[in-house]
Give the backbone structure.
Amino acid sequence: MTDPAKIALTDLTKSFGAKQVLKGITLDVARGESLVVIGGSGTGKSVLLKCILGLIQPDAGTIALDGQPPTAPDYLDQFGMLFQGGALFDSMPVWQNIAFRLLRGPKKLPRAQARETAIEKLQRVGLPPETADLYPSELSGGMQKRASLARAIAAAPEIIFFDEPTTGLDPIMSGVINALIREIVEEMGATTITITHDMSSVRAIATHVAMLHGGVIHWHGRVAEMDTADDPYLRQFISGSAEGPIETLR
């Protein structure tokens, strides 16, 4: 008997008024898999993540984690999240940002232990301990992204979502962040979903890729199979061509 998928989506639909964003998404993400969802802006990638997180209620379809519906009170405790803009709290020092979840809820840690964990995670993403007492505004863009990654992994989640992890970074720092994500995910054995436009991130992070366009999955497979796939939507997105089934403004 095979284990159930870590994340299983079946016929997921979501509309906002007359606009149908998700049109029957069926997708399995295995335990330990690193899935990258690609597609143009406005194709439903962020809506898909929000549905899984329970921030948006789908109109129809089912979501299951380890074969179970997401109804447990501690459902969100299984997730870590790296937000596109970092989303660090400006009024808190870096260590409190990283330890935000650790300092709250029924499983909260003593303040000293939470700070120690935060500094440990800072060092894991390549930032020195003295960064802990700085404020986000005192960090460069790359340092902020590292601190945000440290927060995403602080509570050792089973599932991590990465929303455009290299947005706003130069190519060198993007490569550094991609490498960090890959290393940390492998160490933790976490299941991850990343949404991105950056094909260098796809190649660095993914074990599997799903191409989302027009509310449906046009292609889903291993990253090693991506470049030889014959799906026209995938081919156009990878090549960045203006010619193809994906309409562009002229």
The chain has seven helices and nine strands. The first helix runs from residue 45 to 53. The chain has a mean pLDDT of 89.
